[in-house]
Write a structure and sequence with these properties.
Blueprint: E1 12-16, H1 20-31, E2 35-40, E3 57-60, H2 62-70, H3 74-79, E4 82-84, E5 86-90, E6 96-100, E7 108-112, H4 113-125, E8 130-134, E9 137-141, E10 147-151, E11 157-161, E12 164-167, H5 175-180, E13 186-196, E14 198-199, E15 214-219, E16 224-228, E17 233-236, H6 250-258, E18 262-270, E19 273-274, E20 278-280, H7 283-286, H8 295-312, H9 317-347, H10 353-368, H11 376-382, H12 387-422, H13 427-430, H14 434-445
Parallel strand pairs: 1-2, 1-12, 2-8, 5-15, 12-20
Antiparallel strand pairs: 3-7, 4-7, 5-6, 9-10, 10-11, 13-18, 14-17, 15-16, 16-17, 19-20
Bound molecules: flavin-adenine dinucleotide.
Residues 16-22, 39-42, 54-55, 58-59, 137-138, 168-170, 174, 196, 235, 282-284, 290, 293-297, 299 line the site of flavin-adenine dinucleotide.
């Protein structure tokens, strides 16, 4: 593990929530030399028999990898993931067609959520200035004093004070509740109508049940199913599907009818901070629907952005926290909107010929002008271009490309008409004699 910076006057940072973002954040703060304590309501998942939580596998991409790299974890996590080079679209007639995610060699990684969380907790613990506390549920806290009240599973309460409280306690954040009591805090949450369900498809004869290096999608317009390799995960969206392909085992069917569908929420808020005392990160600040595979990646990028602002403002929390809000809010709101957009793209647009044609045009133009035209997915997934800039650029590119296609189509029609007028074909050769036509029709009827 990397060396920590030595500090003469250590400030205490309390990270509330030891999930993916909390555990990684603890590494970031510890690396800077802060006195870090993590408070997690669950038991230590490294010792638990069953790990409760959402989604078995997650798609890790560039932003998340960059954050892991900062704390020396990238190689380890990447080596345990499965590269996914393309979406594999399963159409109703059983046909499978891949849509590559980017250029040759570009891929996202399927990683095991529980394993990633465990490794991040272990990494945080290796810093001598970090302490992990499990079975600590935050009940209340004071923005004025930084005093937090935790409840243990035996009912005992404990009060702890910190210089900075970092709320990484997920989409239903207890830390955020204090924000809601304050004026000038903007907050919105949207539940999408679909629910999700996770099923595990076991290997067949010791082999992957499906081609492993793809993210498999069954887009059915009003709902969809997704599968990630490794511990195979499938999300079945809303209505019951009677025509699901590749459902060979009884376990899968049994689970489908037994498990309740989970809700999916998108949360937007601003500001992310209160004074110099508290800041929200990860899902606590911006829960997004999972269709862009960016929730965790965005949360991990929060840690890098905070780190960059800390560097810029010499760890002065009174300047760092407002600047963090200023820089990060537009980007997190943009990825929340993009995730909603992908909710439709994945289940419906991928079935459209126009969408597939536009994807080809985008890829071709990207190949010809790699710096001018960059597909949206590439910007979001394989770069650290700010999310809101990705959206602005995408809108500009769409305008230019659609305009170009319109001009080309008009040119083709006008050019073709001009050629026809200039060199009119012999009309008699084009007209099939009625008798010949009748014979052809009769031939079609004969078996
Ligand atoms: C089905 C699904 C698929 C997804 N797929 C992807 C994907 O492919 N790629 C991607 O990047 N993202 C994906 N995401 C999003 C990703 O799961 C989240 O963005 C990520 O888990 C956020 O991490 P977090 O640490 O902020 O929150 P969480 O993972 O929710 O962790 C919060 C932690 O806080 C603890 N906690 C809660 N309340 C308290 C309290 N009062 N006191 C103390 N501790 C508390 C919880 O126990 C938990 O450990 C997916 C999400 C879903 C639902």
């Amino acid at each position: 593990m990397e060396q920590t910076t030595s500090r003469s006057n250590k400030k205490k940072v309390a990270v509330v929530g030891g999930g993916l973002v909390g555990a990684l954040n603890a590494c970031f703060f510890a690396k800077r030399g802060f006195d870090v304590e993590v408070f997690e309501t669950r038991e230590d998942i490294r010792r638990a028999n069953i790990v409760k939580g959402r989604s078995i596998n997650l798609a890790l991409s560039h932003r998340g990898r960059q954050a892991l790299k900062h704390v020396g974890m990238e190689e380890k996590i990447v080596s345990q993931g499965i590269p996914m080079h393309a979406r594999m679209i399963h159409s109703r007639n059983g046909k499978q067609s891949p849509i590559p995610y980017g250029k040759k060699g570009q891929y996202i990684l399927s990683v095991d959520r529980a394993n990633l969380n465990k490794q991040l907790l272990t990494a945080a613990e290796t810093y001598p200035n970090t302490k992990l506390n499990f079975d600590y549920k935050l009940q209340d806290w004071s923005a004025e004093t930084g005093l937090m009240t935790f409840v243990r599973s035996d009912g005992l309460e404990e009060q702890i004070k910190a210089d900075l409280i970092v709320g990484c306690d997920g989409a239903f954040s207890a830390i955020r509740k204090q924000f809601l009591r304050r004026s000038r805090f903007n907050y919105s949450q949207t539940y999408i109508p679909h629910g999700y369900m996770e099923l595990t498809m076991p290997p067949i004869n010791g082999e992957f049940a499906m081609k492993p290096n793809y993210l498999h999608i069954w887009p059915r317009n009003t709902f969809m199913m997704i599968a990630l390799p490794n511990l195979l995960l499938e999300h079945l969206m809303s209505e019951k599907n009677k025509t699901l392909p590749l459902v060979p085992c009884d376990t899968l069917k049994r689970d489908y009818f037994r498990l309740p569908a989970q809700a999916m929420v998108s949360v937007k808020c601003t500001p992310y901070h209160i004074g110099d005392k508290c800041v929200l990160m990860g899902d606590a600040a911006h829960a997004v629907v999972p269709f862009y595979g960016q929730g965790m990646n965005a949360g991990f990028e929060d840690c890098i952005v905070f780190e960059e602002v800390m560097e810029q403002f010499n760890e002065d929390f009174s300047a760092v926290l407002p600047e963090y809000t200023r820089v990060r809010v537009p980007d997190d709101h943009a990825i929340a909107d993009l995730a909603m957009y992908n909710y439709v793209e994945m289940r419906a647009h991928v079935n459209s010929k126009w969408f597939l044609f536009r994807k080809c045009v985008d890829n071709l133009l990207h190949f010809l002008m790699p710096k001018t035209i960059i597909p949206l997915y590439t910007m979001v997934t394989f770069t650290r271009t700010r999310y809101h800039e990705c959206v602005e650029r995408w809108q500009w590119q769409n305008k230019v490309i659609n305009h170009g296609l319109l001009v080309s189509a008009t040119g083709l029609v006008l050019g073709g008409s001009y050629l026809l007028i200039k060199n009119p074909p012999d009309i008699n050769k084009l007209i099939i004699p009625a008798e010949k036509m009748w014979n052809r029709l009769m031939a079609l009827r004969t078996p």
